[in-house]
TrEMBL record:
InterPro entries: Ald_DH/histidinol_DH, Histidinol_DH_CS, Histidinol_DH_monofunct, Hstdl_DH. The gene is hisD. The lineage of its organism: Bacteria, Pseudomonadati, Pseudomonadota, Betaproteobacteria, Neisseriales. The keyword Nucleotide-binding does not apply. Belongs to the histidinol dehydrogenase family. This is Histidinol dehydrogenase. One of its GO terms (molecular function) is histidinol dehydrogenase activity. It holds the Pfam family Histidinol_dh.
């Protein structure tokens, strides 16, 4: 894991190099994904089955073998250990309650002359949710995608999830059952994204695709955008911890591991105003890492995209945090609220020493599908608003047509658009 300091002359260049890890736009990945998407568009189910067999080491004969019914989801739910099932229910309920606050409603207002202006909010008809499953199974991601869609009132939710070696995860299926997912296909990667976007004999075409995934999933979502909507391109997980030096270094080391264990190219960075504290965290990492079951992934991630960075003070840490615009920002400091006004760019901010990022991953309530790769500069967490859309409403009264007609006519003539002008003028009384 790199040790950096903002006092180094080449710090900026080193930080940029650390952040410039963008495999989602790797030309080789893009080329492979383009071929897969075109093939699925042309050959439908047959291509989805072939790619799924190849990449997930399966031997399905047809799409029916990759289709799960609500009954199978229910059976998985019933097989769960009662304590685990309760935990899933608690998480689902907390996620639902949080997202209900995000629900937008239609509005309108009437002007003095009787003209009405407003906005009608409607839910999407059919969405596809991508649940990653290559290196780990993510029941929590089922909830984080499906619950806001449900709260928004989406008509139909189609889920895709890879099941490498054909191993289905009961927690994933049970989460789909709890969240009210309508159909599940056990396929992942670019082929599943393409199937949702273009539709196949078996997979219904959706209006929007949401959910995180690896570089192949990200490239496929970029590619099909326009045919369908997408939420964002959420890539490998990231954590940035800002610590004042007074948190148990073991806690901080484990928080860094928690995101590093997702992927060899996950990002884990610590900013602290004390070299001595960074030494302690480094020692904790060395002590705790050997016992971690996903040690190889964590080690690779910390080597590829990990750093312990010494800063001058917490003010400087906030400036760097804004530049990094991380998916998750842990503020492990005495008074986290005091620093909030300085922080603009992060997918989610975890405030205080007891708020481990992992609580947000599962059950705090806010969504864990968050902008990565510095896109928190302009993007927001997945939410109910991603499953709703807005339509403008305009009802002009006869009186309103007189005042607005004159304005529109002048502007239309200014643009040289005579039909526009006449259309407004014809409604003028004199
Ligand atoms: N931001 C979030 O909310 C969030 C949540 C959970 C996971 N994640 C991230 O999602 C990612 C999940 O990645 P994953 O790999 O575990 O699962 P995944 O489901 O995204 O990808 C697995 C699929 O990738 C495809 N694939 C693999 N190798 C391929 C190849 N050589 N050519 C073509 N296709 C290939 C296969 O079809 C396979 O089914 C991780 O980076 C993790 O950090 C993010
Ligand atoms: N940290 C991931 C988002 O980057 C979400 C997750 C799911 N399970 C565990 N973690
Ligand atoms: Zn996580």
């Amino acid at each position: 894991m790199q040790r950096l300091s903002t006092s180094q002359a080449d710090f900026e260049a080193r930080l940029k190099a650390l952040l410039a890890f963008e495999t989602a736009q790797d030309p080789a990945v893009d080329a492979a994904v383009a071929a897969i998407c075109d093939d699925v568009k042309t050959r439908g189910d047959a291509a989805v089955v072939e790619y799924t067999n190849r990449f997930d080491r399966m031997s399905s004969a047809n799409m029916a073998e990759l289709t799960l019914s609500r009954e199978e989801l229910q059976a998985a739910y019933e097989r769960l250990d009662a304590a685990v099932r309760d935990a899933l229910e608690v998480a689902a309920e907390r996620v639902r309650r949080y997202h209900e606050k995000q629900l937008s409603t239609s509005w309108s207002y009437e002007e003095e002359d009787g003209t009405l202006l407003g906005q009608q909010v409607t839910a999407l008809d059919r969405v596809g949710i991508y649940v990653p499953g290559g290196k780990a199974a993510y029941p929590s991601s089922v909830l984080m995608n499906a619950m806001p869609a449900k709260v928004a009132g989406v008509g139909e939710i189609i889920m895709v999830v890879p099941t490498p070696d054909g191993e289905k995860n009961d927690l994933v299926l049970a989460a789909a059952y709890i969240a009210g997912v309508d159909k599940v296909f056990t396929a992942g990667g670019a082929q599943a994204v393409a199937a949702l976007a273009y539709g196949t004999e078996t997979v219904p075409q959706v209006d929007k695709i949401t959910g995180p995934g690896n570089a192949y999933v990200a490239a496929a979502k970029r590619r099909v955008f326009g045919v369908v909507g997408i939420d964002m391109v959420a890539g490998p997980s990231e954590i940035l911890v800002v610590c004042d030096g007074d948190t148990d270094p073991d806690w901080i080391a484990m928080d860094l591991f928690s995101q590093a264990e997702h992927d060899e190219i996950a990002q884990a960075i610590l900013l602290a105003p004390s070299e001595a504290f960074l030494d302690q965290v480094q020692a904790s990492i060395a002590k705790l890492l050997p016992a971690m079951p996903r040690r190889a992934i964590i080690e690779a991630s910390l080597t590829n995209r990990g750093a312990l960075i010494a800063v001058k003070d917490l003010d400087e840490a906030c400036d760097i945090a804004n530049y990094i615009a991380p998916e998750h920002l842990e503020l492990s400091v005495a008074e986290p609220e005091a620093w909030l006004p300085k922080l603009k760019h992060a997918g989610a901010i975890f405030m205080g020493r007891f708020t481990s990022e992992s609580l947000g991953d599962y059950c705090a309530g806010p969504n864990h599908v968050l902008p990565t790769s510095r896109t928190a500069r302009f993007a927001s967490p997945l939410g109910v608003y991603d499953f709703q859309k807005r339509t403008s409403l305009i009802r002009v009264s006869e009186a309103g047509a007189q005042t607005l007609g004159r304005v529109a006519s002048l502007l239309a003539h200014g643009e040289g658009l005579t039909a526009h002008a006449k259309s407004a003028e014809m409604r003028l009384k004199d």
